[in-house]
Amino acid sequence: MSAVAGLIETPQPTAEALSSEDTAAVQRLLALFTHTFDNQQVDVFDRVFTEDAAIELRKTGRVVRGLAAIRELSLAIGAAGPDHHTLDTYLWADREGVVRGRSRYIAVLADGSTHNGDFLDTFARTPEGWRIRLRVSAPRFPLEEGLFH
User: Fold this and answer.
1) Rounded distance between C-alpha atoms, residue 73 and residue 20, angstroms
2) Gyration radius (Cα) of the chain, Å
3) Rounded distance, CA 129 to CA 143, Å?
4) pLDDT score at 148
5) N or C: which end of the chain has fewer CB within 10 A?
6) pLDDT in single tens digits along all 149 residues of the chain
């Protein structure tokens, strides 16, 4: 069972939209993820993730839980890992007020080939600012049946 129950349904925003300030802050957070993760700048991951964050890699079925494990994942992938580009982000607050996001990604591999997919995120507002609580990386091809309603 996926760690993302309720994240992959068609967005049903609440009547209360995200402020432009919150939207900009989350978009900056998404940019910070790609720069820090791809460059193994693990010392600043506390500015990107909550302490209890999780990353689910749908292609392999692996789930990495906790900030320390996410740091280890980035270091294990290393400098030859994918170069991520995040685009077409859609943000909303669900019926419970949880802020979620769906972004497309393109990853350029060391050999020049690419793959793409979706990042499905759950965000948390902390005293220090917005952080990623859950990130699901779902490859677009082959499209997982039932992933998107």
Assistant:
1) 32
2) 15
3) 33
4) 57
5) N
6) 455 544 555 555 554 678 999 999 999 999 999 999 999 999 999 999 999 999 999 999 999 999 999 999 999 999 899 999 999 999 999 888 899 999 999 999 999 999 999 999 999 999 999 999 999 999 988 666 666 54
Locus of tokens 């980035």: 74
- Single-letter amino acid, residue 25: A
12 three-class SS? coil
Beta-bridge mates of residue 5: none
Q: Residue 90 is encoded by which pair of tokens?
A: 């859609």
Closest CA to 84 of 39, 124, 147: 39
Which pLDDT value is given to residue 1?
Answer: 41
In which element (H, E) is residue 27 found?
helix 20-38
Instruction: Give the helix/strand (H/E) hosting 122.
Output: strand 114-126
Cα 91 to Cα 7, 20, 112, 133: the distances in Å are 12, 11, 30, 14
Long-range contacts of the stretch 57-61 (C-beta < 8 A, 24+) = 57/137, 58/2, 58/117, 58/136, 58/137, 58/138, 58/139, 58/144, 58/147, 59/137, 59/139
